[in-house]
């Protein structure tokens, strides 16, 4: 694996760089992002530079501009520091820079940048340190240290709150009050233009020389959307100047504050925080990371190469830093790491990120699924508007109750020169099945009956109502079909009978039928309640009459499942030149979307995702035949594609392919490609790193409610160790070259390995030899 950051063989929590490159800044800004699920800040420098994206977001604070769809507003800059030394404005683009080093500690989220600035014959040493607190989600703390062993320094420092930022030119915030409190606390209040969400930003700052607090009175400067402190300090040669900045953000939608109190509450909070020094607050945050994240998601790789361990540490760090704990919000496709996709949530959460949380932090998975439950009314409105019943979940969603948020127009058509219409919001309907898949996986792993009764069953039943109403009768086939959709392969629009869509719709209706039977027999009170609201008696009869007549594309004489009605009749082209690294659609340089629609070219795993998610429906021969057919035709223009290919390759014992796709997935964000992550990280691909290791190489799978463990340890690894939750017990899985062990902390569990059933008693361990399989790679 080749990363754009440096790693250390003896420290898998370290990512860094010794090079300052303005043209790569936007990528490292995203990779070294800092956040806690509530607040997120890109790793821009404290001083301003060219090509930077000074983005800061608070989860859930969506706002719209005119007729555009809502997006997360870019908030005022709390990071800023304007530094003048001996009448020379500090900038990395002037003078000379030596000993440059910037690194992120993934263990606690601290970002450190240090270097020597050579200007006018002076060597001045700088060190910037900062963190977003995991123990106090509103808090951000930064520290600057300046020394010179060569000469005295006259330092002027401006630092405060700068609200002169926007979302690529769109201004979402209206300025409110700004003032100085108690002679030392800067506060700026703003609110969003349409959604009227209020913000309070607070900053208080301290200056030291050689650890002695300066009693200087700063000069306050106010301008439009700005409020700054100005410090003037004379530093003698050999002394150290230290500047600590405490900042926080509160909003009127926070669960822990009242609507009219954020000014006072946030100011009281910054006062309390500033009673502690930088290291004390960092220690509190570090402890929160350990308790809330690292002790909950153990995963360790023994390998001569540290990079796989770095990748999984990076993945878990980013998932924790970008996932809100508030169920009214969800994980954006780019998290909080950039403006890409406007902060919106897709199927990425359910299919690619939820497995991590469901297996390791089920309470977080419950929150993310509750978000979909809170969105049922919006999903029902979308279904009704389209002429259907039940709940049709939005392809893009923002605030839980807002409904569909897919923008109508996308990038420019290479042939016509006009913007391309985005049809996903209306045609990519498999999102409704994806939500049900995640709900069923959560229930299978956790046995959370309370969630099922309060939310899960209703999601499943309303999704089935949508699919039953979506079916159309085809008299020629004498089957119910689903026409005019987009499947996971977004290069095929207006297709009929997407295999993925039809199979998952069939499966959803089957699950709803099973839920009705279960509730009628075991919980008639809840059934009667749901029946009253959802008219289940009528829906059940509708499902029974249709489910066995749904058209399911069958494998042809070569065992290939048609991706849709016409895919196998389209023209075949050589796709090698168009295969990407998970985000660069090279094929659009030669074809527009309408032309690609007529080619056997697939954007990402589609049929292969189907046979992975529903592997018990297909034989190994069918899986292999579809791998051999579709894998060469897939361009991987979506970063979601690699993880599915890697896991499926592990299942098929294509060990080299599995590891190659694993490395390519790790390189989507960590790799050397410049620009791929400029708009933010690829959160689904990041979730896929955990999936590839645990579900692929670790062999963990849930099949029809049962746990299967069949490891496929990569030849480059000596061992793999991870923990998962299963039915309330903690399982520690240790995979070696020839054997694997399952240790149980809690109640007894049962799992399947190569069709054999194994029982592990409570608080005990079992060791099983790893079967030697035939490698079917050419």
From TrEMBL:
<feature type="domain" description="Glycoside hydrolase family 65 central catalytic">
    <location>
        <begin position="315"/>
        <end position="691"/>
    </location>
</feature>
<dbReference type="GO" id="GO:0005975">
    <property type="term" value="P:carbohydrate metabolic process"/>
</dbReference>
<dbReference type="GO" id="GO:0030246">
    <property type="term" value="F:carbohydrate binding"/>
</dbReference>
<dbReference type="InterPro" id="IPR017045">
    <property type="entry name" value="Malt_Pase/Glycosyl_Hdrlase"/>
</dbReference>
<keyword id="KW-0326">Glycosidase</keyword>
<feature type="domain" description="Glycoside hydrolase family 65 N-terminal">
    <location>
        <begin position="18"/>
        <end position="252"/>
    </location>
</feature>
<dbReference type="InterPro" id="IPR008928">
    <property type="entry name" value="6-hairpin_glycosidase_sf"/>
</dbReference>
<dbReference type="InterPro" id="IPR005196">
    <property type="entry name" value="Glyco_hydro_65_N"/>
</dbReference>
<dbReference type="InterPro" id="IPR005195">
    <property type="entry name" value="Glyco_hydro_65_M"/>
</dbReference>
<dbReference type="Pfam" id="PF03633">
    <property type="entry name" value="Glyco_hydro_65C"/>
</dbReference>
<dbReference type="Pfam" id="PF03636">
    <property type="entry name" value="Glyco_hydro_65N"/>
</dbReference>
<dbReference type="InterPro" id="IPR011013">
    <property type="entry name" value="Gal_mutarotase_sf_dom"/>
</dbReference>
<feature type="active site" description="Proton donor">
    <location>
        <position position="490"/>
    </location>
</feature>
<dbReference type="GO" id="GO:0016757">
    <property type="term" value="F:glycosyltransferase activity"/>
</dbReference>
<keyword id="KW-0378">Hydrolase</keyword>
<dbReference type="Pfam" id="PF03632">
    <property type="entry name" value="Glyco_hydro_65m"/>
</dbReference>
<keyword id="KW-0328">Glycosyltransferase</keyword>
<protein>
    <submittedName>
        <fullName>Nigerose phosphorylase</fullName>
        <ecNumber>3.2.1.-</ecNumber>
    </submittedName>
</protein>
<feature type="binding site">
    <location>
        <begin position="603"/>
        <end position="604"/>
    </location>
    <ligand>
        <name>substrate</name>
    </ligand>
</feature>
<keyword id="KW-0808">Transferase</keyword>
<dbReference type="InterPro" id="IPR037018">
    <property type="entry name" value="GH65_N"/>
</dbReference>
<comment type="similarity">
    <text>Belongs to the glycosyl hydrolase 65 family.</text>
</comment>
<dbReference type="InterPro" id="IPR012341">
    <property type="entry name" value="6hp_glycosidase-like_sf"/>
</dbReference>
<feature type="domain" description="Glycoside hydrolase family 65 C-terminal">
    <location>
        <begin position="701"/>
        <end position="757"/>
    </location>
</feature>
<feature type="binding site">
    <location>
        <begin position="347"/>
        <end position="348"/>
    </location>
    <ligand>
        <name>substrate</name>
    </ligand>
</feature>
<dbReference type="InterPro" id="IPR005194">
    <property type="entry name" value="Glyco_hydro_65_C"/>
</dbReference>
<dbReference type="GO" id="GO:0004553">
    <property type="term" value="F:hydrolase activity, hydrolyzing O-glycosyl compounds"/>
</dbReference>
